[in-house]
């Protein structure tokens, strides 16, 4: 299979293709983030990196089989400030999405997967569906899948695809993976992690800072040394949200009462292989940023398995 990937990131789609047992003859990627490209090339040296999607000539991929990608969701996400969030088919968010539809139209690639954030405005969802219909000649509605079905992370996303879906039976089987299952050490106080995004790299600081973010704003997933320490910190936070404002952060994560998830744990939330993002000259924060921008691999694998379902149905 020849695959064109836009907004490729760290090539989570390539990992999914492997898990779906799909042989990749060529994999062409459009990506501009340097760290993401380094991680991709470490894992898949044969990737053809092409750079900026705005400069792409997609007519050269007319013999390709699959187009994948998810344009940056930052502009459409509910996490944006109201005055900055785009809610119509205009602005940079829509321009980025339009490069995907341009690629689909210019290349004529027969199959595609497009992903974006579930929290986008309904008007945007409708316009995306309309844009695909204008190219394909028939309507494809988005499929809502929460990554919690296949991972230890809550991650609501929409997927537009014309890979065979089996209608109402398209949801992945619930693997019942708990956050505690993927921790390297310590205690998880909830069954599933909050959604890990790029900005999770900034979930660092004193105990009270992390408590304010986690208990107060439900931002950033925390892990604790023990259940008792979790309850103690929660009580301290309720009494005084700035209880250790000037206390230095313990350098050894295994000795912290509350901590950020390790890079390996974040990789596991996205169902990536352990150490997938380990790369020379890329620190842990930068690795987490690239993971947060990526896909939950096993959701994409489930969608790609539609090719096998189609083959089996034809037998």
Concise description?
It contains 11 helices and 9 strands. It has helices spanning 12-19, 34-43, 92-107, 122-136, 179-182, 207-217, 227-239, 263-269, 284-292, 297-304, 306-314; strands at residues 2-6, 26-30, 48-49, 66-69, 111-117, 143-146, 156-161, 222-224, 258-260.
Task: Describe the structure in your own words.
The structure is a single chain. By secondary structure, the chain is of the alpha/beta class. It has two domains: 2-174 and 296-314, Rossmann fold; 197-260, no CATH class. Helix content is 35%, strand content 12%. The chain is built from eleven helices and nine strands. The strands form two sheets. The protein has a seven-stranded mixed sheet with strand order 3-2-1-4-5-7-6, with helices on one face. Strands 8-9 form a two-stranded antiparallel sheet. Strand 2 (26-30), helix 2 and strand 3 (48-49) form a beta-alpha-beta unit. The longest helix is centred in the first third of the chain and has 16 residues, at 92-107. The protein is globular, with a radius of gyration of 21 Å. The two termini are 21 Å apart. The mean pLDDT is 94.
Properties at a glance:
single chain, 315 residues, Rossmann fold, 2 domains, two-stranded antiparallel ribbon, 11 helices, 12% strand
